[in-house]
Design a protein that fits this description.
By secondary structure, the protein is α/β, with parallel strands linked by helices. 36% of the residues lie in helices and 30% in strands. The protein has four helices and five strands. The longest helix is centred in the middle third of the chain and has 16 residues. The chain is globular and about 35 Å long. The mean pLDDT is 94.
Length: 118
């Protein structure tokens, strides 16, 4: 099963919409997509809109951690939004919800972004 992935420019951030299940089979696909959409823009915040994600396993957690560190190291930020309960549960159990900024929706995350510096 593959992921549904799309990216768009948001308010002072890049919004990546993810749909499907993020697991050992699809984690590399998400990782590669994040690499593509953040090329030359790793200092810009990324909002992962996970409203369409029904499952996230340890492989998906690994992808989130890699990109959290990658973006943070470049002056950027990784946020997650729109979590379904199974995904929210995984983030709570792993305490990732204490590391990542978690928003109810991508729109709420965008509204919380500082204005872009030009």
């Amino acid at each position: 099963m593959s992921l549904q992935l799309a990216a768009r420019d948001g308010r002072a951030c890049t919004v990546v919409e993810v749909g499907g299940q993020v697991d050992m089979a699809t984690g590399p696909e998400l990782n590669d997509f994040l690499g593509q959409v953040t090329t030359d823009r790793r200092d810009r915040p990324v909002v992962l809109d996970l409203a369409g994600v029904s499952f996230l396993d340890s492989s998906g957690i690994g992808v989130l951690l890699v990109w959290f560190k990658e973006l943070q190291g470049a002056g950027g930020r990784l946020c997650v939004a729109g979590l379904q309960e199974p995904v929210a549960y995984v983030l709570r159990v792993t305490a990732l919800d204490q590391v990542l900024d978690v928003y109810d929706s991508a729109e709420a995350a965008e509204a919380d972004m500082p204005p872009a510096v030009r």
